[in-house]
Write a structure and sequence with these properties.
Blueprint lengths: L1 H20 L10 H6 L3 H11 L6 E5 L3 E6 H10 L15 H10 L3 E6 L17 E4 L11 E4 L7 H18 L6 H35 L17 H4 L14 H20 L4 H20 L2 H67 L1
Parallel strand pairs: 1-4
Antiparallel strand pairs: 1-2, 2-5, 3-4, 3-5
Length: 366
């Protein structure tokens, strides 16, 4: 009992000393490490606001870094429509919107930016609503009037992005193994890719045709899917269908007439030089042969082809060796005959010489 009482006294002394030093709340049972690891309420608030879909934001380049930013007036209207988000701030939930934004700026969760291009470009009536290039504003104070604010913290990666990062190597390996797929899988992949490619090209052609027709007839710039070719855009912005508002000046009628004539001439030129039926058939046959070679290739056929090639090479070598041996044998059989003929010719020459010498000797004697 005495030991337990002494332990309780020591614990009480430690807790009182901690309270006097201000390192721990006497009414809290949370250890100091967990309290230190607890996130700041403004950090939680900033993450919640950034992930909310109702806050309109865009991406831009700030000092060679892509950042996500929003406008000051959009933040004010967002907080008016969603006052329940202030509950995350706990004791600071009664702050005004401007004070909350200034607190985010002080905690380096936000940074105020300004547009790099501050003059109206030729052919436009006003500055861009969402500039693509930003720079840091000297005074880090919240404002609604033409002020932009970029998030400085790294956004939490969603689960689908993590799964996608593991999926890319698998997809790369699957593409490399395409030649060994079964024939039906090859056909399915071929027709799927060809269909997607045809859809993209048709969409771009139809989009350009609509733009050209409306621009020539009405003098207005209407681009459906305006961000389909954008280099920096989110997935939601990429497939946006409705065109943006035309803020540029209306083109002159002379320019519209000139491009209309050029378009007609190009169409007539393409129609005049279009390939005939025989040329199209030859091209189709050539492409079908190439596609068939790719689709019909398989490891078994490749191995059998290699074996057949090796068999042909061996047969060729054997026939070559046999012909060499035959030539050597014929050379050996021909050599004795040639020697016999040479001996006979030598004897005949010797006899002729001896007869000539005898006749000459008799003439000399007479």
């Amino acid at each position: 009992m005495k030991k337990s009482g002494g332990a309780e006294k020591k614990k009480a002394r430690r807790s009182s000393a901690a309270v006097q030093n201000g390192s721990r709340d006497p009414n809290s049972d949370t250890p100091p490490r967990k309290q230190a690891a607890k996130k700041d309420v403004f950090q939680l608030f900033a993450e919640k606001v950034r992930d909310h879909k109702d806050l309109v934001s865009r991406w831009a380049v700030l000092q060679e870094t892509r950042v996500e930013y929003f406008r000051g007036k959009d933040f004010v209207s967002f907080m008016k429509n969603h006052p329940e988000l202030k509950e995350i701030l706990e004791s600071n939930k009664n702050l005004e919107t401007e004070d909350i934004a200034n607190s985010l700026l002080q905690k380096n969760l936000l940074v105020r930016c300004d547009r790099v291009v501050k003059t109206v470009r030729p052919g436009k009536k006003k500055l861009s609503t969402w500039p693509a290039h930003l720079e840091i504003f000297p005074e880090q104070v919240f404002s609604e009037n033409d002020a932009f604010f970029a998030w400085t913290f790294v956004k939490r990666r969603p689960l689908w992005q993590t799964l996608l990062s593991f999926f890319w190597p698998v997809l790369t390996l699957a593409i490399c193994l395409f030649p060994v797929y079964p024939h039906r899988c090859k056909l399915l992949i071929l027709y799927s890719c060809a269909g997607v490619l045809l859809l993209i090209l048709s969409l771009l052609f139809l989009r350009a045709a609509i733009f050209g027709a409306i621009w020539i007839i009405l003098g207005k710039r209407v681009w459906f899917f305006p961000n389909i070719l954008a280099e920096e855009a989110t997935l939601r912005e990429l497939f946006r269908f409705w065109p943006k508002k035309d803020e540029e000046e209306r083109p002159k009628w002379t320019a519209r007439l000139f491009y209309a004539i050029v378009a007609v001439l190009v169409i007539l030129l393409l129609r005049h030089h279009a390939p005939d039926e025989a040329a199209r058939a030859r091209y189709q046959k050539r492409m079908s042969n190439i596609i068939d070679d790719v689709l019909e290739w398989s490891p078994s056929l490749a191995l059998s082809g290699m074996m057949e090639k090796q068999t042909v090479v061996n047969a060729t070598e054997n026939s070559t060796n046999f012909s060499d041996e035959g030539s050597k044998a014929s050379a050996e059989t021909v050599t004795p005959a040639e020697e016999t003929l040479s001996f006979e010719e030598t004897d005949q020459n010797d006899e002729t010489l001896s007869f000539e010498e005898t006749d000459q000797h008799q003439n000399d004697t007479v």
